[in-house]
Design brief:
Largest sheet: 9 strands, mixed
Number of helices: 8
Order of helices and strands: EEEHEHHEHEEHEEEHEHEEH
Distance between the termini: 41 Å
Shape: globular
Mean pLDDT: 80
Radius of gyration: 19 Å
Strand content: 15-25%
Structural class: alpha/beta
Helix content: 25-40%
Length: 272
């Protein structure tokens, strides 16, 4: 637990179209994982940063569902349920230490839009931990790892490059500094042919797979606010600008079974 208030933005602004039609009825972040809604695993992870202000940015389509979720996830929710169900009182879950808020995403859907919405709501100048709600790490705590990043430094959680995973994740191209590699570019979910081109052009040793956590410094947040918008309304990726403040890689390499990405289990569930 930290001795200062941490700020966290949880990006959950999508509609889960890869898992449709299941996600017409419930946000993918609430899909059961190990017998509990997935978002509870994320909130448990974030308790390592408590006391913390956590803002979840959701798609407005789910407004009625989120109104209910706020009742069940925010402070006092467990005690309220136990009274209603005439159940004995138990210890409060650690996640109730979090100052948890939900806000609808404003603007064209994009991960960067969600981050900007979140930091505007928090009115923070940083640093900010960013968690993408469709990445879960039930057996480890990457947010705690990122909390050790020195002040003023931006870091992105990555794992070593794996060609078999490259088409399902963002592929980061880094410089060849082995001690503190710097991100040079990001290619989102390349095709298999494009991934092979990246391997031939840069070498596998300079490629990394993007994970679902980052820690953004004050300087980076200032840059992010000034990121130009593309014609489709989505802000350009800040990693592609020469003026971007350097952001390093935070290598997190657990056994593959310790990381769970929503797209795979949801798709698998829909097939059966």
């Amino acid at each position: 637990m930290t001795d200062h208030i941490s700020d966290v933005v949880v990006c959950a602004g999508g509609l889960g179209t890869r898992a449709a039609p299941w996600t017409q009825h419930i946000p993918k972040e609430f899909q059961p994982v190990d017998g509990r809604p997935g978002i509870l695993h994320l909130l448990d992870e974030l308790t390592a940063l408590a006391p913390a202000r956590v803002v979840v940015v959701y798609h407005p389509f789910y407004e009625p569902f989120i109104a209910w979720a706020q009742k069940t996830l925010t402070r006092g929710a467990q005690a309220t349920y136990q009274r209603a169900a005439h159940l004995p009182r138990t210890d409060l879950p650690l996640r109730e230490q979090l100052d948890l808020r939900f806000i609808p995403q404003r603007g064209a859907y994009a991960d960067i839009t969600s981050v900007l919405n979140g930091i505007d709501h928090l009115q923070t100048t940083g640093p900010v931990t960013v968690a993408f709600a469709d990445n879960l790490y039930p057996s480890d705590n990457p947010s705690r790892t990122l909390a050790t990043v020195p002040p003023g430094q931006t870091a992105v959680l990555v794992r070593p490059y794996d060609p078999q995973e490259s088409t399902r994740r963002g592929v980061i191209i880094a410089d060849d500094d082995s001690t503190a590699p710097i991100i040079l570019d990001l290619v989102e979910k390349p095709t298999a042919d494009r991934a092979r081109e990246l391997e031939d052009q840069h070498g596998s040793g300079r490629l990394w797979l993007l994970e679902g956590r980052a820690r953004l410094s004050n300087h980076f947040l200032d840059h992010l606010r000034g990121t130009p918008t593309q014609p489709n309304g989505e802000p350009s990726s800040p990693s592609r600008s020469a003026a971007t403040p350097p952001h390093t890689l935070c290598d997190w390499s657990p056994p593959p079974h310790q990381s769970q990405t929503w797209a795979r289990p949801v798709d698998d569930a829909l097939r059966h």
